Model the fold of this input.
Amino acid sequence: MSTMFGALNRFISRLDSESPSQTSRDRSTYGFQILRNKNHEIPIEAWYDFIVGINGRQVDNPDPSLFATEVRNCAGSNVSLILWNAKGARTRTIALPIPTPSPTLGITLQWTPLSVTEDVWHVLDVITNSPADNAGLLPYGDYIVGTPEGNVHGESGLGELVEDYLGRNLRLFVYNHEYAVTRLVTLTPSRSWGGSGALGCVLGFGALHRLPVPMTEPIAGPGETLFETARFSNEEPRPLSAQPPQPQSPSLYPPPSSTPDAPTFLVPASMTAPPPPPSQSATSPAAGPPKGAKKQRNVAAPNMTFDDYFREGEQKSKEEDYTTSTKGTAPLPPPPKSIKAPAQVENTESAADIQVEAEKPEILEAEPKPESQDG
Done:
């Protein structure tokens, strides 16, 4: 499994290298990372939140005194902060009241690039009786986000740190996605615990293993993106609210929406069938087209559904079965009149003789001439 994720990470890295403008823009984005929040009434999360804008303007100066001056100027009113969160890479805006006596927020900041949140290791599997198992790491739900021992950068940064702490206690900050809590875990890396590796767990690193959106937030609807950074530069912003239900239309396809950005979907429940056409009586014979008349072409009505189309075809098939075509054929002759049969000859021999005699030619014998008498 680790080989498969490694191949996918290399493929994504290759794609990222093909767009240097996008990569350089993300790497060069900075903000004030929240290191500590002393005011628990402020909905700001330490380590995961970055202040990237204040009062509608982007923060592009690393000098903290300018930021503090902007906050003090809002004493007695509200200050608007644009926060970027590492969980799902989402941006939100909050308004915080600034008291007049002490115009401060009660937070500790540090000018940090947003790319530090990419150094996250996802726990994929934990081997039984390993140092990771004894420390309480949970597969799939735990993410190693840092350590109080120092900064860890790059895919190999955690491995180098583990090698330095072989046989010693190593503290790690672990975030659990299912419970949305961050805890401090202490484990002792070792090569002699009876298995492979110093930790005894499988870790994932890269774009496929970044911090996901908290489970408490609503799930992204159709047409919405999971990460705001995963959007093309020429793509227009999509509405986050659900589209209102389209009114039912008698046609097979719903009418196009008035707004160009609203997607159109073909919902089977909204397809209403028109009343079926009046069918011919079963007792009356189907009359064929008049002689010399041009046969009409079968054209489906615009409001006809699939059931009506098949029903019409079935009706036409029944009419053709009961109608006999007489085009190009001569009328049948009338039946012959009744003829009396000849009497049966009882004597077969006499009948044969009669037939033979009938076949023999008639021979006429010449009558003898009377002899002349001399007189």
Q: What stands out?
A: The helical segments are 2-17, 20-27, 64-72, 131-135, 157-164, 306-322, 348-359.
